[in-house]
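Good day; I would like, with your permission, to put a structural problem before you. I would ask you to consider whether the tokens describe a fold that such a sequence might reasonably adopt. The full record is reproduced below for your convenience:
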Amino acid sequence: MPSYAGASWQALRPSLVHAMSSLPDASNILADPAVSSWLRRALASGLERDPVDAANDAELLSEVLSGRCAALLPSPEDQSSATADRAAGAEGLFRADLAWDRLSADQQRGIGVAALVLAVGIAGDWAGRSPYQAFVAAAVAGQQAVLEAVETALGPLNELPRPNLAPIGVEACTSCGCTDEVACPNGCGWVMPGLCTNCDAGHGCPCRNSIPRPKTR
């Protein structure tokens, strides 16, 4: 019989003992072909040792390997920042298409599902669909879910540059960002693709800190 050196396993590892009730049996792990050979060897070796010593060594090994993993892999915050930085185009605008391509499949799914809920909610609200409150609730919940999912993936959204609208097929002034649908506050027109009359005049567009209104083209 192995010696416990006067120590109670339950006293030494109460939380781990509780968690073990939901873990697979050691024999099942050893027999599972999906388990790595390294883990099977380590488990088989550990079962031959004093259980307290083996558990202590396993915990130390877990801490060492977890620390090495954390040192080698970027944090979620660093990953979000790097994704957002790489999504900035040469013109300094946020490129949603580049950012999307760099998201994981789970991140894309989370954002996509939330966007579908938002779109259906808005469309139902605009069309006066019944029950009214259900579509409004979907729009509100979808909007919140989209914001949370995107911010989780990219980091603080209020720190990103304004979006480049070309990937969604919208022509915008490269200087101030006005479009056919949202004009400069005092109205403007196109001098050429990507340049509105206000910005071409040389005095700049005052719309950066104003509430947009319909453009008069």
Observations:
- Confidence is low (pLDDT under 50) at residues 1-20, 208-217.
- The chain has ten helices and two strands.
